[in-house]
Design brief:
With 678 residues, the chain is α/β, with parallel strands linked by helices. The protein has two domains: 244 residues, no CATH class; 414 residues, Alkaline Phosphatase, subunit A (3-Layer(aba) Sandwich). It has 26 helices and 16 strands. A hairpin with a 3-residue loop joins strand 12 and strand 13. The longest helix is centred in the first third of the chain and has 36 residues. It is elongated and about 105 Å long.
Length: 678
């Protein structure tokens, strides 16, 4: 019976070491809560914390249970037949669990970095970054997120895990019982095997024996889910990665036209409900006619697209920071109209840029990286439609056009020319990982614009790059001083070196944009200037006491900036709108300058008519509230330094969101519908 006794002994070792991984996950959860929780005092939170850790423990066993199963199948079972294998069993278990714990450390540190940048646990943005510049990611990792220390952390972490494993494996074990009858031996052994299998499934299914009862997001205890942060903290890192993995963004491309049609139909005008599929393109349903020019047609249109140029620093509660004084001066002109609740087309740079330029939402399909969209574009494209009004269109980028395959995508999108700052700026110009410093890029762009002036109307689209991690610019040489720029800010803010690099770069980028806008206003008095950001960003140092609350509101997380200037522009032209999006910009430009009856294409109406809601593939916005589709909560648009409650309920606008996504998928599946006017 030595065979059975060895298996019995081995299974107990597997059982002991099983608990190391969930304990480590619990420790990681505690560290995450300690570092990022907006409430540092646990008083009054103990019930929430208990259920957060309890539910998170069982949810995490979805992966952690395999420590037991693999140990039993790979070590204990063969060890029962081969005593030599059994003899090194504890070493094998220790090495195996150490490899797994290294994976957990990697996932946890990745989540800590991800949350720092996006204020969320792992989500769909991971898919959006699959073609990101790897050099930039490394730069940010080592220079902004202390990557060297994280890598060195593997050594003490794994050493401690090794000793912990030895401690667990050294705990006393039960001895194999001595039975007088063989049948009892076999009966006991069968019981052990069944109990081991039952234990695995019980753990794997989150403290139940039914797969259908496994923990999931919808079943997080309500007391925890009321707290948005703790609800996110409940999800173990590998579980979060699994959720992202199971929801790839490319599934739109696998839908058939028949599957997509019902969703698309929900956003079509009534006249197109039945006939749209017989059209050349479903985008034909979004053909509009201009009502007539509201301002004199400008010879120069400038669209300034600022990297991470978010709305939050413009809010009065952050006045003490003084990092957008240039933008505020631009907005202060009586002929500048600003909208403070403004949604980008995406959550990161490339989807936002593509959505604005193409006029359809990128929807996570990375249209700029698709070869079909290097050959042609859609009728909703911004440069194509401005060319139809007689404008020459020029795209200016502060970096290299190889980023995001722009050298292919931009001309196909309808631009007559594109300008690469790494080529037209002086050789040796200082630059960040992504591009030439903003002020050098914009000053040289202004010089070329003036030097090449002719009689043809022109649209200049300028995209800056400097306001991006790891924020390594020589700010002191550029005149930045916390004591001079923000004397009223809390001392903790002024002394936080990491945040000062972040705030200082934002200050610098704002000054460069505002200086360019002022130069163009003075040089070309008829200019129409749009100033917006590609997406929002976490720029407010909440932990340093800038306001009472300790984290951003949903509005601050998602809303980018927007302001538009023309010497004939007045606020009453904008129909009292307090909300808007990138999707409204093109229609607004056309309705301002095009003659009555001019045909154009736009999914969204202009800002010159009342808008009650904005829906993108990522966010939704009404005049009262804002939310993200992936969440089941939303917040009001109130601007306050105090904690702002969240509201819960059925996710709104899911059908409309699905329609915009399916529309993009339709166009991606039908490259034969792409075209461009030459």
């Amino acid at each position: 019976m030595a065979l059975f006794s060895l298996f019995f002994a081995g299974v107990q070792q597997d059982f002991k070491i099983l608990w190391l991984a969930p304990l480590v996950c619990a420790l990681f959860r505690a560290v995450f809560i300690y570092v990022y929780s907006p409430r540092k005092n646990p008083a009054g939170q103990w019930k929430k914390l208990y259920h957060c850790f309890r539910y998170g423990f069982w949810w995490g066993m979805d992966f952690n249970a395999y420590v037991f199963a693999i140990g039993m199948l790979a070590v204990s079972l063969p060890g029962a037949f081969f005593p030599a294998w059994f003899a090194i069993g504890d070493t094998l278990r220790s090495v195996g669990v150490l490899v797994y714990l290294a994976v957990l450390y990697t996932a946890f540190m990745g989540k800590m970095i991800f949350y720092f940048h996006y204020h969320d646990i792992y989500n769909h943005i991971l898919w959006l970054g699959k073609k990101a510049d790897k050099n930039n990611l490394a730069d940010i990792f080592f220079n902004q997120n202390h990557g060297g220390w994280i890598l060195l952390g593997y050594l003490p972490y794994l050493a401690l895990c090794w000793f912990a494993a030895q401690g667990l494996l050294g705990l006393p074990s039960l001895t194999y019982p001595d039975f007088d009858q063989v049948v009892l031996h076999y009966g006991f052994n069968v019981l052990v095997v069944l109990a081991a299998a039952a234990l695995f499934y019980y753990c794997r299914f989150g403290g139940t024996f039914r797969h259908a009862d496994k923990p999931e997001w919808d079943e997080i205890p309500s007391v925890v889910k009321q707290d948005v942060f703790l609800a996110k903290a409940t999800v173990d890192d590998l579980v979060a990665l699994e959720i992202v993995w199971k929801h790839p963004l490319q599934e739109l491309l696998e839908h058939t036209d028949e599957q997509a049609a019902p969703a698309i139909r929900t956003v079509l005008p009534a006249a197109w409900q039945e006939k749209w599929q017989s059209s050349v393109s479903p985008l034909e349903a979004f053909r509009r006619e201009a009502k007539g020019a509201r301002i004199a047609k400008p010879k120069h249109i400038f669209i300034l697209f600022g990297e991470s140029y978010a709305q939050a620093p413009f809010d009065p509660i952050y006045e003490a920071l003084h990092i957008v004084e240039g933008g505020k001066a631009f907005r202060s002109d009586p002929h500048t109209v600003a909208i403070d609740n403004f949604l980008p087309g995406g959550e990161i740079s490339q989807p936002s840029l593509v959505s604005l330029l193409s006029g359809i939402y990128d929807a996570g399909l990375e249209l700029n990286e698709r070869g079909d969209f290097w050959q042609g574009t859609v009728p909703t494209a911004l440069p194509v439609q401005l060319r139809q009004l007689g404008y020459r269109t020029v795209f200016w980028y502060g970096g290299g056009m190889n980023w995001g395959s722009l050298q292919h995508y931009i001309p196909a999108n309808g631009f007559d020319a594109y300008m690469d700052a790494t080529e037209f700026c002086p050789k040796g110009s200082p630059r960040t990982w992504l591009g030439v410093y903003d002020h050098i890029f914009l000053e040289n762009a202004a010089r070329i614009i003036k030097d090449t002036e002719d009689d043809r109307p022109v649209v200049h689209f300028l995209y800056t790059t400097s306001n991006h991690g790891p924020y390594k610019m020589p700010l002191e040489k550029m005149g930045y001083s916390p004591e001079k720029i923000m004397p009223e800010a809390p001392e903790a803010v002024k002394k936080d070196a990491a945040w000062q690099r972040h705030l200082g770069v934002y200050w610098y980028a704002d000054r460069a944009l505002a200086a360019f806008a002022k130069d163009m206003q003075e040089t070309y008095p008829d200019s129409l200037i749009v100033m917006t950001g590609d997406h929002s960003m976490g720029v407010i140092p909440f932990e340093d006491g800038i306001v009472e609350r300790k984290g951003p509101t949903v509005r601050e997380q998602v809303c980018t900036s927007f302001a538009m200037y023309h010497r004939e522009l007045t606020a009453d032209m904008f129909a009292g709108n307090t909300i808007g999006s990138h999707g409204n910009i093109l229609a607004t430009l056309i309705e301002l300058i095009a003659p009555a009856g001019h045909a154009y294409y736009s999914l969204q109406p202009s800002l010159l008519e009342p808008i009650d809601r904005i829906v993108t593939p990522y966010h939704w916005l009404t005049r009262e509230a804002v939310g993200r589709h992936e969440d089941d909560f939303w917040q009001s648009l109130e601007i306050t330094g105090k904690e702002l409650p969240v509201q819960r309920g059925a996710k709104p606008y899911e059908k409309e969101r699905a329609a915009w996504c399916e529309l993009t998928g339709w166009m991606a599946r039908h490259p034969e519908l792409l075209d461009i006017e030459k």
